[in-house]
Design goal:
The structure is a single chain. By secondary structure, the chain is α+β, with helices and mostly antiparallel strands. It has a single domain (3-101), classed as Electron Transport, Fmn-binding Protein, Chain A (Pnp Oxidase, Chain A), CATH 2.30.110.10. The protein is 20% helix and 40% strand. It contains two helices and nine strands, in the order αββββαβββββ. It has helices at residues 3-21, 67-74; strands at 29-35, 41-47, 50-52, 57-63, 84-85, 94-100, 103-108, 115-121, 127-134. Strands 3-4-6-5 form a four-stranded antiparallel sheet. Strands 7-8-9 form a three-stranded antiparallel sheet, covered by helices on one side. Strands 1-2 form a two-stranded antiparallel sheet. It starts with a helix and ends with a strand.
Length: 135
């Protein structure tokens, strides 16, 4: 793997891990997309609560009564179905959604020569492949 791609991969995960701990971080708020019961795409902003760099896990918290929880639970095609329900601090409707990242699509927008790379990970979280998409 070219060293620039390795650096980009490492940097992206460092930024995700930092975002989970720092409310003002750029990657703290991420877009979560799912499909509802009528097969319509649904997108919403969620707060990144944890990033496990070694295992390539991302975690958000949500109310288990929410549409996103039901959409991810019901859709077997979902990339990241809810992993567990927990009661925290007496919050009976508290849910944790844990995503195991299979592919990271990284991009950098510029005035000219935008850059994009894709990273794929194995079940163990290790980087399996990387490649430039653009240029």
């Amino acid at each position: 793997m070219p060293s620039e791609l390795a650096h980009i991969n490492d940097s992206a995960w460092e930024q995700l891990a930092a975002a989970a701990d720092y409310p003002e971080a750029s990657f703290r708020y991420v877009s979560l997309c799912s499909v509802d019961a009528a097969s319509r795409p649904q997108a919403r902003m969620v707060v990144l609560r944890r990033a496990d760099v070694a295992q390539r896990l991302l975690e958000i918290h949500t109310d288990v009564r929410s549409a996103k929880w039901h959409e991810l639970s019901a859709n077997p095609q979902a990339t990241a179905p809810p992993a567990a329900t927990h009661e925290a601090d007496g919050k009976a409707h508290f849910g944790v959604v844990t995503f195991r990242t299979e592919v990271l699509d990284w991009f950098q927008l510029r005035r000219q020569n935008n850059r994009r790379a894709c990273f794929a990970y194995g079940a163990n979280g290790r980087l399996a492949s990387s490649q430039w998409v653009n240029p």
